[in-house]
Write a structure and sequence with these properties.
The chain has about 170 residues and is mainly alpha-helical. Helix content is about 45%, strand content about 0%. The chain has a domain at about 65-165: Cytochrome Bc1 Complex, Chain D, domain 2.
Length: about 170
């Protein structure tokens, strides 16, 4: 390798470095216009948001009784599919959960042949539509220690429709 080849390789390296440095400088100038390169400032637009310390108006919840009056058993039949994984509507036939034929108005923990959790077996009262709604909304909150693994049905209309469907089997 002679001196001329080394000189050309060094020149090519320096030329390539110069092109990359000039490209970096040009892109910096293109994206950071205004001449405030050394100052500490934010880039972008300011978006005004609502004051987070102000109280948020919560939507007033409609009482279950008012929703249940207009509930649709047909809509509840579609919701039943989730329940049918563990429950049966045939009287006397228990699945993973107790059968639900006649559940509306029945005593809590009253199905023969089903081993209820202690909390439901000893709970007083009937499965009124309101009690069923509370249980379906949050089973573990309504009866702590229940064996029901369902996380709950948050929509009050869905609960009312499902209970209206179950009431057709009384």
């Amino acid at each position: 390798m002679d001196t001329m080849t080394i000189t050309k390789a060094g020149g090519a390296f320096c030329g390539a470095l110069l092109v990359f440095l000039l490209g970096a400088w040009a892109s910096e100038e293109l994206y950071h216009v205004g001449g405030h390169h050394g100052e500490d400032h934010a880039m972008g637009y300011a978006i005004e948001v609502a004051d987070s310390s102000a109280p948020v108006e919560e939507e007033e919840a409609v009482p279950f009784e008012e929703v249940y009056v207009n509930a649709s058993a047909d809509a509840g039949e579609r919701l039943w599919r989730q329940c049918s994984a563990c429950h049966v509507l045939e009287p006397g036939v228990n699945g993973t959960g107790p059968y639900l034929h006649g559940v509306v108005g029945r005593d809590k923990g009253a199905v023969d042949g089903y081993a209820y959790s202690e909390v439901l077996a000893t709970m007083d009262g009937d499965w009124t539509p309101e009690n069923l709604s509370g249980f379906l909304e949050n089973p573990r909150g309504y009866a702590q220690g229940t064996k029901m693994a369902y996380r709950g049905m948050g929509d009050v209309e869905d609960r009312a429709n499902l209970i209206a469907y179950l009431a057709t089997f009384n």
